[in-house]
UniProtKB/TrEMBL annotation:
One of its GO terms (biological process) is lipid catabolic process. Pfam families: PAF-AH_p_II (PF03403). SUPFAM superfamilies: alpha/beta-Hydrolases (SSF53474). Residues 286-297 have a biased composition (Basic and acidic residues). This is Platelet-activating factor acetylhydrolase plasma/intracellular isoform II. The keyword Hydrolase applies. It comes from the Bacteria. Residues 275-297 are annotated as: Disordered. Keywords: Hydrolase, Lipid degradation, Lipid metabolism, Membrane, Transmembrane, Transmembrane helix. InterPro entries: AB_hydrolase_fold. The chain crosses the membrane at residues 25-44, 56-74, 80-97, 109-129.
Length: 459
């Protein structure tokens, strides 16, 4: 990725947006229609002389499912969650086509029962994998979004150019939010597929992230004034948009959030011209070797965060959108997991960083840290008491020299609670915690904003 000297680049605007209320109504109408269809079919199958109205109900419910499936596919294409509901209709129609003669109802009863089970599976899928919806930002500002690209420091990765997503307070509301995971839907699907491959899950499970939208409007003018800056590094294999809800909320409260992708470390980095750099990170099975590699990657990430400050200083003087709006005398470094470790190290190495927010990241090589620090710790832990104890000791050691160290254990939180994952993954406590979809985002944003308001000043 070549160095860009242009202004902040807005992602492509979204198109074909389906109102959220309509999407909800269509989805749950489809579920109810499938349930009615399966119920009517099973009733006709077990009764020797069912009431004629059940046939009308069967056909009407099938039509409702068809219409609902079409409506839910208008925004982002067909939803796989609806497939079991469609299967329920295909099973129900032959099961309830006509009343069975005495002694010959068995096959139709089995089809009807299978239709009921398919409705159950579809209902679970719809509940577990809902459309991605970022919470409404809590601050007074509307939010804009764009990206910056620059050369970055030389690393072992062949593609050393850096990309960052920038969320900022906007001058006025209005406009369509951009896609969640990319500049456009095509890039969003590429990023989603890369994340699925990196974490070993079927791509279909991240479908809602691939077609979802954020809350920020691409390219809208920045609000008047100068705003503190929050740098962000994502987790292991993570991408710069993984904490969009958190970043959008901070921007609505008067902060500029600059989130980096890390080439050869993030699952994939898609450049301005569509070129992709995938991750080369991976475990070797040798703990000592893997720990050394993690330390090395944290060092590279910290160097890239510091490079972002250099680039922002240049853009504050010349960028057509950001110029004159960056308060580089009030800078926080933040990160999730491995990114949290990078934020700690960048702050220890660079006096321009005034505070750190570590979202459940194990500290690595941040000796001498002497700025305010917030560490949010997952209350559910790792499931390994020994690992949790080592983490606690490392946090205590790295925060010992901080003038304002706040270590907050978030009850009910898991490691992914501090990302956008609760918004589109199944609500399994061991996976995304037990704070609820929007509750997880709110807890992280609220704690971060309270800390930043104290150490960098309220907005």
């Amino acid at each position: 990725m070549a160095r860009s000297t242009r202004g902040l680049t807005p992602p492509a605007p979204a198109s074909g947006r389906l109102p959220r209320v309509l999407q909800d109504v269509a989805t749950w109408t489809t579920v109810l229609g499938a349930a009615g269809c399966a119920g009517a079919a099973l009733w006709r199958a077990v009764r020797s002389r069912p009431h004629p109205a059940t046939r009308v109900l069967l056909l009407a419910a099938a039509a409702v499912v068809l219409a609902g499936a079409v409506v839910t596919s208008l925004d982002g294409g067909p939803r796989w969650q609806v497939a079991p509901l469609a299967a329920a209709v295909l099973l129900a129609l032959p099961a309830g086509a006509r009343s069975a003669r005495r002694g010959r109802r068995g096959p139709r009863v089995l089809l009807g029962a299978a239709a009921v089970l398919a409705v159950g599976a579809g209902s679970v899928a719809v509940r577990a994998f809902p459309p991605l919806r970022l919470p409404v930002p809590s601050g007074p500002h509307p939010v804009g979004v764009g990206e910056i690209a620059w050369a970055g420091p030389a690393t072992d990765c062949p593609a050393s150019g850096l990309l960052a997503q920038v969320w900022y307070p906007a001058a006025a509301a209005g406009g369509d939010p951009g896609p969640y995971l990319g500049r456009d839907r095509d890039e969003a699907r590429r990023v989603s597929a890369a994340l699925a491959d990196a974490f070993g899950v079927p791509p279909v499970l991240l479908r809602e992230a691939a077609v979802g939208r954020g809350r920020a409007v691409p390219g809208t003018p920045v609000a008047a004034g100068r705003f503190p800056v929050v740098l962000f590094s994502p987790g292991n294999l993570g991408v710069r948009r993984q904490n969009s809800a958190w970043a959008t909320d901070l921007a609505s409260r008067g902060r500029v959030v600059v989130a980096l992708d890390h080439p050869c470390d993030s699952a994939v980095v898609v450049g301005p011209e569509g070129e992709a750099v995938t991750s080369t990170a991976g475990g070797s099975g040798d703990d000592a070797r893997d720990q050394a590699d993690a330390d090395r990657r944290v060092g590279v990430r910290a160097q890239q965060l510091r490079s972002a400050l250099d680039e922002l200083a240049r853009r504050d003087s010349a960028d057509r959108l950001l110029g004159g709006h960056l308060d580089l005398g009030a800078v926080a470094a933040a990160g999730h997991s491995l990114g949290g470790a990078a934020a700690l190290r960048a702050a220890a190495q660079d006096e321009r960083v005034d505070a750190v927010v570590d979202l459940d990241g194990f500290p690595r090589g941040a000796d001498g840290l002497d700025v305010p620090v917030l560490v949010l710790v997952a209350g559910r832990g790792t499931g390994d008491p020994g690992a949790d104890a080592r983490y606690a000791r490392a946090v205590e050691a790295v925060t010992a020299g901080s003038p304002d160290a706040r270590v907050v254990e978030v009850a009910g939180a898991s490691h992914l609670t501090f990302t956008d994952a609760p918004l589109f993954l199944p609500p399994l406590p061991g996976l995304v915690g037990s704070l609820g979809r929007e509750g997880a985002v709110a807890a992280t944003a609220r704690a971060t904003e309270e800390f930043l308001a104290d150490v960098l000043g309220p907005r």
